[in-house]
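2024-03-11 09:14:02 INFO worker-7 job=invfold-0412 stage=load source=structure_tokens
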């Protein structure tokens, strides 16, 4: 059966106006064109819809029974085919799935939850841990927002840099190098740094990271004795052993402060660590998702903009 949904719009106007001429004016068509449309509606429904009584037209019982349904269908069609630019936050019931680096979740997550809940109490967040294999893929719609240092490789994934961080060294207070070996600001000497025992942060268990590339370019190498999957795990190792871990300072600040660790600048220059926010392009025009991104952007930016008093190494 071939359906012309334009007939619904015309039927709605005819039933609302009760006049072919007025319905034609409402839809900006000619009166003869509306008369032809009424004929098509009569053939489609098997009912006269409007019958002439003197100088006016009266709806049939079938037309009266259909009027509310037809009007609702037309309004729903307009909603479907119109840009969706608003969301009722007070009534919003939605669960967003966030795959964030654990340190980012710790640094910005509390702020994000507070700001979202203040506007939309029905919204819930699921923070997923980073995994060694991508069991959740934003391209399948499994993830609403990702946040980390890596730039997505797929052209389907939108991304933006919402802040920057820098690496610092974390040691336990009793570590021999905690008081520094040169300079008045506690900066470690490069020789002392490379002679220490190190732990890397790698969810895939890699014992090498970009610091080793910089050291290798200078003809140096360090001794990495362990790899931990997250910064939180690595800092627990540091807390109990004479190890040195390089972690992003600002996003790891809650962990560093909570464990009472010693923080020192790196004794060699390293590029800043970008904080990337990423999502699938399907969510570009989703008003609820746009609202979520705005709050996530603010929470991450504020976490990265916090001052920490640690100056970079030379």
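2024-03-11 09:14:09 INFO worker-7 stage=emit residues=314
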């Amino acid at each position: 059966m071939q359906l012309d949904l334009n007939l619904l719009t015309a039927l709605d106007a005819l039933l609302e106006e009760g006049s072919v001429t007025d319905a034609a004016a409402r839809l900006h068509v000619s009166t003869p064109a509306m008369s032809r449309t009424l004929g098509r509606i009569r053939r489609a429904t098997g009912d006269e819809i409007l019958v002439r009584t003197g100088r006016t037209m009266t709806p049939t019982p079938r037309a009266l029974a259909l009027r509310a349904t037809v009007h609702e269908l037309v309004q729903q069609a307009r909603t479907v085919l119109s840009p969706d630019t608003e969301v009722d936050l007070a009534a919003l019931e939605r669960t967003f799935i966030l795959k964030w680096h654990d340190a980012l979740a710790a640094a910005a997550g509390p702020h994000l939850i507070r700001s979202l809940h203040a506007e939309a109490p029905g919204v819930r967040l699921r923070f997923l841990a980073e995994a060694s294999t991508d069991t959740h893929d934003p391209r399948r719609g499994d993830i609403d927002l990702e946040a980390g240092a890596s730039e997505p490789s797929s052209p389907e994934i939108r991304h933006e840099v919402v802040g920057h961080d820098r690496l610092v060294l974390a040691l336990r207070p009793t570590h021999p190098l905690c008081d520094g070996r040169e300079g008045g600001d506690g900066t470690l000497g490069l020789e002392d740094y490379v002679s220490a025992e190190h732990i890397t942060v790698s969810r895939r268990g890699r014992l090498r990271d970009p610091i080793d590339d910089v050291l290798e370019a200078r003809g140096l190498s360090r001794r990495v004795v362990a790899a931990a999957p997250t910064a939180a795990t690595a800092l627990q190792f540091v807390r109990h052993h004479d190890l040195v871990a390089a972690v992003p300072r600002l996003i790891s600040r809650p962990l560093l402060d909570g464990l009472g660790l010693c923080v020192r600048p790196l004794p060699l220059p390293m590029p800043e660590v970008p904080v990337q926010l990423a999502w699938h392009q399907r969510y570009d025009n989703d008003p609820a998702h746009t609202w979520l991104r705005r709050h996530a952007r603010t929470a991450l930016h504020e976490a990265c903009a916090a001052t920490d008093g640690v100056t970079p190494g030379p």
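2024-03-11 09:14:09 INFO worker-7 stage=report msg="The chain has ten helices and twelve strands."
2024-03-11 09:14:10 INFO worker-7 job finished
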